[in-house]
## 1
Amino acid sequence: AQTVTQSQPEMSVQEAETVTLSCTYDTSESDYYLFWYKQPPSRQMILVIRQEAYKQQNATENRFSVNFQKAAKSFSLKISDSQLGDAAMYFCAYRRDNNNDMRFGAGTRLTVKP
Amino acid sequence: NAGVTQTPKFRVLKTGQSMTLLCAQDMNHEYMYWYRQDPGMGLRLIHYSVGEGTTAKGEVPDGYNVSRLKKQNFLLGLESAAPSQTSVYFCASKAGWEETQYFGPGTRLLVL
């Protein structure tokens, strides 16, 4: 079974600074997708960024970027120029190609200090 | 632009009662999913559907049933609610060609 581990239950960052959230996963597959979702207090799950395992280039979306290390099975999220609105729970997720069972990590609660 | 909606937003049940949670999406998505979220854990897949009239089990299907009679709706049923089913339930949908799932706002269920 595929498992996703987020080793940081809580993180905090100063506004305008950079923070990195860690995620590791366990799989024997070669084709899969990785995601970071944000869950603010409203509870809505919002996609932040996704990465296809077959792509070597790290995905970026404005202030959000990932460091995808396939051999190490690591998928960290970097948030640059942190804003107060970035405060939320962040979930890392894995989904095998051609499979509907998406596995989530336990989440990291990010606090942004003004 | 509703996206994915869930009804109800919050519900309290007594042990043994039954109820149905409704998920609706207006994006013409083929795939729909039901997850539960418990404290200290990520979302876990209960059941999913790859198209109208089809359903399949996810990671934690016991105690739940689902139906997809219409493409835009995905119903999650609890026949005899148990306190262990106290959770926040999320519905999601995605297009067949896409990798990203779009989530509803969640339903908080408390079983006493």
Note: The mean pLDDT of chain B is 93.
## 2
Amino acid sequence: EAQVTQNPRYLITVTGKKLTVTCSQNMNHEYMSWYRQDPGLGLRQIYYSMNVEVTDKGDVPEGYKVSRKEKRNFPLILESPSPNQTSLYFCASSPGTVNSPLHFGNGTRLTVT
Amino acid sequence: TQLLEQSPQFLSIQEGENLTVYCNSSSVFSSLQWYRQEPGEGPVLLVTVVTGGEVKKLKRLTFQFGDARKDSSLHITAAQPGDTGLYLCAGGLFSGTYKYIFGTGTRLKVLA
């Protein structure tokens, strides 16, 4: 089954404790992206990647890092989480062609206390 | 910064009523996509419209892309409780860049 898999689904952590949210897709997609979803603000892009070893900042990259060492994986790293990073995070992928749709994971709800 | 404004933000209607959700921007998009998101899940694509003035129908849902490719609407006829969810529009920018701009969403509740 074609899918984008995120882990974990829920995560509660404390300020400053490094964490990684994993994302994997099995559709051989070129493009992968991370979004955060906050009430009233919609989906905002954090980072994206057009291909292996190619990553770029989205609209809200501060406090986040990503890597794309393999085509299928695109982990999101929070080196020193802060409470304002409490949010619902989504990983998405697409073939990377014009007008192609995004395929989303089921989300990771992160709480930073 | 490109913005996509969706209206209304919230909508609560009775089963059988019709409704329209609007998605507006000052930017011109290569395409406009509509997604639906249910609690605990990621958004799922409903439709992609590409040509200015294009109208697409998906059962009781009608999607329209504005002539200038800056706006779009989603019309639901005879809404059912199963239509309940968060509806998101997303504008695609693929000329010189590769970016999706998401609207703030419309949360629809259809009461039986």
Note: The two ends of chain A are 36 Å apart (CA to CA).
